[in-house]
Write a structure and sequence with these properties.
Layout lengths: L15 H5 L6 H5 L4 E2 L3 E2 H18 L4 H10 L7 H8 L4 H16 L4 H9 L12 H47 L1
Antiparallel strand pairs: 1-2
């Protein structure tokens, strides 16, 4: 099942899927499953999360939701391990440079419009310096950070839920045992 973080919806059955169905199963996008991103997820899952929540926000406010969804899926389209790359090259500005790499890769492999290009290129603003031109670009700046935070804390939330369920089961067993004794 294709789903975004903190969502129970199967994205294949959601209107969102129509916006990205032409690119989501491409070899390039699928390759992103091979790269870890934000500690507990893959670059594919991160891109899917950003794409989906970008779509929802932009749809709600009557922005270009299709462009937001597609650019969200393409915003981190680079095919190497970021940490190894920084270690080998010593490059300190990868945070501001990877959008250029992602835009180049997306432009070479997919047909993208001017809004999608701006979203991909400036999703790391203010590190990219040039101001975003479109409201959809400002949305991804926020959604990308929101998803990164959720991805970072997801393992801890899962652990907390498991502990909470375990405590509930123990309490239920105590109640059952107490009623049986009476």
């Amino acid at each position: 099942m294709l789903k975004a973080i903190c969502s129970k919806k199967n994205l294949k059955e959601h209107l969102y899927f129509k916006a990205v169905e032409d690119i989501i199963y491409s070899d390039e996008i699928q390759q992103l499953k091979n790269f870890q991103h934000h500690l507990s997820t893959t670059r594919f899952q991160h891109s899917l999360n950003v794409s989906y929540y970008n779509y929802l926000f932009c749809k709600k406010f009557n922005f270009n939701a299709r462009a937001a969804a597609r650019a969200g899926l393409l915003h981190d389209l680079f095919f190497y391990n970021r940490k190894e790359y920084i270690r080998k090259t010593g490059e300190k500005r990868h945070i501001g440079r990877h959008p250029q790499i992602a835009l180049q890769n997306a432009s070479e492999r997919f047909e993208i419009n001017h809004i999608e290009k701006d979203i991909i290129l400036k999703h790391m603003w203010p590190f990219t310096l040039a101001l975003p031109k479109y409201k959809e670009t400002y949305v991804i700046i926020l959604i990308d950070k929101y998803c990164a935070i959720m991805e970072f804390f997801a393992p801890y939330l899962s652990m907390f839920k498991r502990k909470k369920n375990k405590v509930k089961k123990l309490e239920m067993n105590k109640i059952k045992t107490a009623t049986l004794v009476e």
